[in-house]
Amino acid sequence: MNDHADIKAALRAMPIETPSWAYGNSGTRFKVFTQPGVPRDAYEKVADAAMVHRLTGAAPSVALHIPWDRVDDYTDLARAAKDQGIAIGAINPNVFQDNDYKLGSVCHPDPAVRRKALDHLLECVDIMDATGSTILSLWFADGTNYAGQDSIAARQDRLAAALARVYDRLGPHQRMLVEYKLFEPHFYTMDLPDWGTSYAHCVALGERAQVLVDTGHHAPGTNIEFLVTVLRRFGKLGGFHFNSRNYADDDLMVGAADPFQLFRIMHELVRTGAIGAGSEVAFMLDQCHNLEAKVPALIRSVLNVQEATAKALFVDADALAAAQANGDVLAAHAVLTDAFSTDVRPLLAQMRTEIGLDPDPVAAYHASGYQQRIEAERVGGSQAGWGA
Amino acid sequence: MNDHADIKAALRAMPIETPSWAYGNSGTRFKVFTQPGVPRDAYEKVADAAMVHRLTGAAPSVALHIPWDRVDDYTDLARAAKDQGIAIGAINPNVFQDNDYKLGSVCHPDPAVRRKALDHLLECVDIMDATGSTILSLWFADGTNYAGQDSIAARQDRLAAALARVYDRLGPHQRMLVEYKLFEPHFYTMDLPDWGTSYAHCVALGERAQVLVDTGHHAPGTNIEFLVTVLRRFGKLGGFHFNSRNYADDDLMVGAADPFQLFRIMHELVRTGAIGAGSEVAFMLDQCHNLEAKVPALIRSVLNVQEATAKALFVDADALAAAQANGDVLAAHAVLTDAFSTDVRPLLAQMRTEIGLDPDPVAAYHASGYQQRIEAERVGGSQAGWGA
Amino acid sequence: MNDHADIKAALRAMPIETPSWAYGNSGTRFKVFTQPGVPRDAYEKVADAAMVHRLTGAAPSVALHIPWDRVDDYTDLARAAKDQGIAIGAINPNVFQDNDYKLGSVCHPDPAVRRKALDHLLECVDIMDATGSTILSLWFADGTNYAGQDSIAARQDRLAAALARVYDRLGPHQRMLVEYKLFEPHFYTMDLPDWGTSYAHCVALGERAQVLVDTGHHAPGTNIEFLVTVLRRFGKLGGFHFNSRNYADDDLMVGAADPFQLFRIMHELVRTGAIGAGSEVAFMLDQCHNLEAKVPALIRSVLNVQEATAKALFVDADALAAAQANGDVLAAHAVLTDAFSTDVRPLLAQMRTEIGLDPDPVAAYHASGYQQRIEAERVGGSQAGWGA
Amino acid sequence: MNDHADIKAALRAMPIETPSWAYGNSGTRFKVFTQPGVPRDAYEKVADAAMVHRLTGAAPSVALHIPWDRVDDYTDLARAAKDQGIAIGAINPNVFQDNDYKLGSVCHPDPAVRRKALDHLLECVDIMDATGSTILSLWFADGTNYAGQDSIAARQDRLAAALARVYDRLGPHQRMLVEYKLFEPHFYTMDLPDWGTSYAHCVALGERAQVLVDTGHHAPGTNIEFLVTVLRRFGKLGGFHFNSRNYADDDLMVGAADPFQLFRIMHELVRTGAIGAGSEVAFMLDQCHNLEAKVPALIRSVLNVQEATAKALFVDADALAAAQANGDVLAAHAVLTDAFSTDVRPLLAQMRTEIGLDPDPVAAYHASGYQQRIEAERVGGSQAGWGA
Question: 3-state secondary structure string, D162-175?
Fold first, then answer.
């Protein structure tokens, strides 16, 4: 078991990236409900992300989504972020919201559409260069709705070709994370439906291609901590898109649906040295806040990740190993659940106080007047959203 | 086993209602791809529905969705439909696309919102009166995203109160069908998530409240033909919203994902006398055509239902009963699969020829010039869509 | 929020019944691994159950399974239980382990088999009379493996007829709980697959027929606390078979797979007055301990239920209602998660100390020498098991 | 589209292996129902398998399961098979039915148990040498039931070490197929839960290690034809264990639950040249016949695979490619469904007649008197079964 100082040190060294799009409006196919104060451009999203970081001390970067966050001068955007204490994180290309992409992007049967999609991916590497981003986060909406609609195999070939082109374009300090998703927005096949497919492509590409695990993108019953462990073992875990789900890709706040699952994932990461300084695993949120207030929801989500991690750091590794070696099923299980049952909120509050933060970041947000200010200032213009 | 004449007679007496919204644009939360020629108002949707009926002879009514299909004069809309050979079918209220409905409609914690939603439901009964519709088709998007967000029990009480008010408003020849759905657009609870909840409310309401089964709205592994049989046994099967799914509520064309399942459902309906003249079970499509051409997709869907029904009518009921009574598992199963393996397309083509239709309605559509005409005529204005 | 004294009082008044079969050997279709010290008859199971009660103070009854627990004199067995401080709880008939039941029991196509099954059910009511049991717990393995194998509707009729016969036989202080299960041991249909089917039959039977919720028997994604709330609302929640699952009916220790789910279920029960003195909801464990030591696993399971219930009792009901009324999604959710994050183990330890128990029942078991004694004494004879 | 002669030629060149264990008794954890005439040893299983081949002309080999099929002289068993017209197929080691294997076999925490399991695997390669078998079919029941029970990562290391030892032992004409399964008999982790984990290990091992796809071993919603295509593309599809499922690993007859799925899988195999002479993909049944008569169930299953394959051979590949290239979703889908709607039973009957077989193998079985003979002869002794 780590002592309290170690736990606090590990948590202070664990960055949790928030996504620019979570500050904008989002919703379902049935309705996007708008909220007052929502940002209207990338700069305002950066401002909200900086606010989350100021209050939590744990969210020092913000992921961009292109073209939703398109600006004239990405160097200027990066500078604006830096001025507010955060950095630009992963760049997320979007090749699914143009009419040309109805039947796919890099997997489309028409080579002209594939070329267009590839150009956008390459443009995103330019943006990485301009912003200092080191991660290209690739999710493709490509897939089909009906058996026979397109050749599964031909689409794999097209996908591999595009990935190889992008991989070759990466600079020496850049990497690409290849995300997968079981279904949606296509409902018969997705061209990257599971970690195995992402993994096979990443192996073929090389060491700077790694798998991105979105916690909401799996089939029912999938044991996420297991595949995380396997990916660590084979050297291909690039990072996470955190959120939570009860049914499908529900994009709820991380830890809201099943906090014990989040703890188990964190336990595997603690165990393999992926938590703390020097970790190369990227921790990124990827969520929607359809009903709840957005900035506080992101603060709450950062806290949820910290609490799960703190509990994982409380696991008595020696006692666990001893019980496992003895085949003592109940004792080994109890080591894990004892850590999970621990109330880590006081320790986290103390940690925040020690670094000059309010011990309760959500309350601090409500007391700050920030929400009132953005609601007053951000009138007129077009609220940012998914742009569907 | 029915003879061919009986099979054709049963199919000729089986109406399959198409939904007005399937003629408009639809999509996912990520993107709605538009298509040329899509209707711009309820009259144009009625025209498309009439075209499907002219070619198939099997789709004599069209369901409306309010407010998507709002018109000044519903009597006039009904007359326009009748002039083209079809009738107005079920009326589907929409209480999920107004900003007020973010936290629910009839289950909302605020009584003012509940009243607004109820008023809309009652208005839809007025529209039933004006159009001659006999079915009020109720689906509520109500639910919550997070544990604790609202009281599950209080929401049930609010739901029951609203349903009772609407029930009391129904005329003697009208009925309400209460639909359920496991998840989406809410992801922790839906206030009507399963057939059991719909059933319990319908029993409390009375005989003119019945359960509406949407084939895409179940948990993985749910045996739909089983619950259909149970609902028939307890007298509460009101009708279907047909579509198909591989994962969730994918809203693909009925029969596209699992044609054997559709056949098994139809077998249970044939067995209980729900197919053919006098059936009180309503057969309605409820689908999206995000990628494929809309009118041909609806024609194809009508044909899929007919093919599954024809195969079900081919089941040798006497042989089946004998094998079941003998406990001969393989023989009983083979009776069903023999019927399913039968190629019924020639019989259906013959049936169409006999009633003056083209034996291949899809080919007839492409040969008709209708698509070219609507693409040419329907320019300008705003294409109909889900309005999210 | 309840104060600590109220919480402890509520927990002290909450009986958790253990099942006799959990003390015997169990396993999967692939292998039943045996354990030393396992009981060889009903009396030894009762002794183990009494030991669990002595250490936890919370498990004052043991459920029987007939014929696994068949004895010559049930009155004597009840007396033996009473002498050790516990009572006989629910009686569970078994109509699935005789060669005659291959195609079903009360739903079998052959009336002679149905009669045999019915006789066994009625015999179990006799055993209720002899033991003082008030609950007949009905689970039927009946179902089919292949489409067409038997008539779904005819089997429903046979089921209804048998249930009615048993219902009529019940004494005034006895009730029957009707359990359901999605699948296994049949894999196409189960004759009682979901709560809706159980509910419909219970409504037809009368007020002494209620639904039994086994937490492991649902389709993936089913929201159990929702259906529990609905069953409470409609007056038909009879009780629980507690266990936990990751995939199917995995029969793991309750609370092991998803402790937050167990807490949410308990919250709904607390909210509706089903916890504490006078509750008519029966709390029963129904688990397997294939790998782990059996008596300690049952102790641990009782503690898990108590911890989840204690957390539910910590929910600040007033704050929750206020946040819900305000539509404050994040605040309402936080009321629940704050209670869940609370470490209730110290309070529970204190409660045990106050009533003269060891604060750590698992440690007390290991210190007691009981396991060594039963391993030494229970040699020879035939270990109890599922008898498959 | 292939012409009828080509289709018949392809089917005649497609061997479908039956598993010895499917001729024995099987069941669920709740009950194994016995059947008269069931084999009592490996020789009688071989006789039944030979009967299936005589009637279908399509099942020229039988898989063995060790130790269920342990004999003194495997060369003699192979000769007995050859005398009856079939060969010994894949060898399936069993390292899950010894008390030592409670916590695993090659992944067990105790090195002595791992060594014992490894020895058995190596013994099975000896049996391959003796019988001429070229396939070692590896399925491990290894896993855990509770979070923390054992180290996921350490178990992966142990697994990799054992696989490497077995791989090194293989002769130049032998290969190992590595199967995976989502859950059962363990319910928290399986050490090989999905195709990705099997694939990663096979890549590390070398070209004679390939993935074995059991159609029943996936999470709900998994698109099996997709992963089959990906495995073909990356050169790692070794073969199939065919069966069908509605819920979990239900082990029903192949094609019984979803014939359209089986057709889609076969379509991908036809498309990539895996059907017909020279294919290196092994087609093996792996099923249970708990309720239905065993030999006829296996005949029926062979026919189901042939029918699905024949339909796949009916797909008009040119029309499909043209529609896909045009992005004509409905037309491309219709090419597939037209082939599926074709009644191929007459063609298959004709093919059988042409090679001297009865056109209806199931009827031929019932007319043969074989069942009566085995029921009369196989009395006394111990019926073969899973031995759980």
Answer: HHHHHHHHCCCCCE
